[in-house]
Design a protein that fits this description.
The protein is of the alpha+beta class. It is built from 5 helices and 5 strands; from the N terminus they run H-E-E-H-E-E-E-H-H-H. The chain folds into 2 domains: 65 residues, no CATH class; 76 residues, no CATH class. The relative contact order is 0.13.
Length: 152
């Protein structure tokens, strides 16, 4: 039974039926979105505390699971005719998109892309393309630049 639950959880993450939030690298880090293709490399080591570790030694702490954001492709069918499914807002409108951009930046860096050597235009294109390739909508240029800590 436990194995089936774990398989269903992994399937939900891979199919973007849920979003993973965790503190990456340190228990004192800010919560950030963990992309499904990144989460695949982690093995949950403590389900009660929500800790996971990758073979590379990287760690996630305080893992939380949430329904996907309204802007995610997994829930876009719910917004037909621009009708909101809920009046509850959990985050500032741009917060999730900025976290997605930050996750893309970390993933590209982990893949060996030297982002710091790119112009702002090239930087924005690389992050935007990574997000689109991984099933997310690309945020605006300003959001990507804020996530990178760069100025226009």
């Amino acid at each position: 039974m436990w194995g089936r639950m774990q398989d269903e959880f992994r399937s939900a993450v891979d199919e973007r039926r849920c979003t993973i939030f965790a503190r990456a690298g340190s228990v004192l880090s800010e919560f950030t979105i963990i992309a499904p293709d990144v989460f695949r490399y982690f093995v949950v080591t403590d389900w009660m505390r929500g800790d996971a570790q990758a073979a590379t030694g990287e760690q996630l702490f305080s893992i939380h699971v949430a329904l996907p954001s309204v802007d995610s492709p997994a829930t876009s069918y719910l917004l037909q005719d621009n009708k909101q499914t809920s009046t509850v807002r959990r985050k500032k409108p741009g917060a999730v998109k900025q976290q997605q951009a930050q996750a893309a930046i970390r993933a590209l860096t982990a893949e060996g892309v030297e982002l710091e050597k790119l112009s702002n235009q090239e930087y924005e294109a690389r992050v935007s393309n990574w997000l689109i390739a991984n099933g997310y909508r690309s945020p605006g240029k300003d959001t990507i630049m804020r996530a990178a800590g760069r100025r226009k």
